[in-house]
Amino acid sequence: MVPRGTELVPSTWDRRDPLGEQDLEVVPFLVHRYPDRALLLATDRCASYCRFCTRKRWVGQGPAPGPDELDAALAYVAQHQGIREVIVSGGDALMLADDKLEAMLARLRDIAHLDVVRLATRMLTFAPTRVTRELLAVLRAHLDVPGAPALYLLSHFNHPRELAPAARAAIGALVDAGVPVLNQTVLLRGINDDRATLVELLRALTRLRARPYYLHQCDLAAGTEAFRVALDDAQALYGSLRGELSGLSIPTFVIDVPGGLGKVSMGPDVVVREEDDAVVLRGFRGGTARYPKR
Ligand code: SF4
Q1: Torsion of CA 16, 21, 23, 26, to 10 degrees
Q2: In terms of CB atoms within 10 Å, which of 87, 210, 228, 261 comes out highest?
Q3: Domains of the chain from N-terminus onward
């Protein structure tokens, strides 16, 4: 959260909009990149602001979407039957007041082709007391409506020290209320780019029932070069988690390909070589074995 002078040093890789979202904004505040998903930028506000934020060009600075723009965004989703999932983000979805969130969920329920609504929030880290009885009642009321889209909460924890007692309680309350929690983590140089820290974080999240979902290589947002881990080091670190952690605790390591080309998984290269009828695979202890191609 604390600004550093290094952010002012320009890098040749810097991009104002690393994910090319502005080109994919089909109507204001709605990004439609993948055929079956749409990203609703429901607010530009967060409870605190991460220096490495991929949307720092806009987050915390406005303009915020007004009711007419949200209407237009939801109308677009309603008109496109291929969209099965809406990710309510920003900014932070839980910056919406309970009544606004309730109204948004009701509007999304009216769109019959939606299977999933995801609420993306870092509030469990910054302000876990946001998970009040009233908020849980809003979420539970949505889940109680027959045929309502499944609701997932996408949390964002980067370090075990962010899992304060109140954060742990908030995760537990959400899961107990029937809202599955998935977690995303951004790999940050000097903060969580060591095996012990990541293992502690991923184990703790799993124990708390917040399933580790994505480990992100830090995007190329302007001023974030000092946060980025060299790609070789990042892949080696990710590879070292295999064997140490069960599959339940290992998120998918991804890079969002610049220019709006979407996420790609950057797991360790386990194929040592290809033969005519087999591939030679390397296991987590370094041993190799052939596996048939068909
Ligand atoms: S909470 Fe999310 S949207 Fe807000 S500043 Fe941090 S990374 Fe960006």
Answers
A1: -150
A2: 210
A3: 5-268 (3.20.20.70)
